[in-house]
Write a structure and sequence with these properties.
Helices cover 37% and strands 24% of the residues. The termini are far apart. A six-stranded mixed β-sheet has the order 3-4-5-2-1-6. The chain has a single domain, classed as Beta Polymerase, domain 2 (2-Layer Sandwich), CATH 3.30.460. The chain is an alpha+beta fold. Helix 1 packs across helix 2. GO terms for molecular function: ribosomal large subunit binding. Its main location: cytoplasm. Belongs to the Iojap/RsfS family.
Length: 120
C-alpha cells in the first residue's frame, strides 16, 4: 500500500469513530519525517484513545501495518501514531489549536479527503 493509501485508510478509521476536523497533509517534499500527517480532534481522552485504536486496528487488518511508535497515550491530549511513512496525530481541541500543525506545515499539500469522510 502506498503512503497516500495508508493516509486515506487512517482518515477512514478516524471518521468511523466520529473524529472531528480530520485532515491530511502531504509533506513528502518538505521533510524526511514522513510522507503524510493525518490529523484529527477527539472530544475526550476516552474518544482520543478509541480513535487511535480504530486507526491501529484498520491499518493492521487492511494493510498489515503496525505503528513503529506510539506516544502520548498516558496524557491523552495528543497521541501520535508513527507508521514511518505516515504520522497520525489525534488531539484534544485545546491541544490542536495550541500546536496548530496545519499552520506549522502550511507548505505541505492538503490531501483531498472528499468522498473518504462522511458528512457531519
Amino acid at each position: 500500500m502506498t503512503p497516500k493509501e495508508l493516509a486515506i485508510l487512517a482518515a477512514k478509521a478516524l471518521d468511523e469513530k466520529k473524529g472531528k476536523e480530520i485532515s491530511a497533509i502531504e509533506i513528502t517534499d518538505i521533510t524526511t519525517l514522513a510522507d503524510y500527517f493525518v490529523i484529527a480532534t477527539g472530544s475526550s481522552n476516552t474518544q482520543i484513545n478509541a480513535l487511535c485504536g480504530s486507526v491501529e486496528k484498520l491499518l493492521e487488518e487492511q494493510a498489515g501495518e503496525k505503528p513503529l511508535r506510539r506516544e502520548g497515550y498516558r496524557d491523552g491530549t495528543w497521541v501520535l501514531l508513527d507508521y514511518g511513512c505516515i504520522c497520525v496525530h489525534v488531539f484534544s481541541a485545546e491541544a490542536r489549536s495550541f500546536y496548530d500543525l496545519e499552520r506549522l506545515w502550511a507548505d505541505g499539500k492538503p490531501l483531498d479527503l472528499t468522498g473518504v469522510l462522511t458528512q457531519d
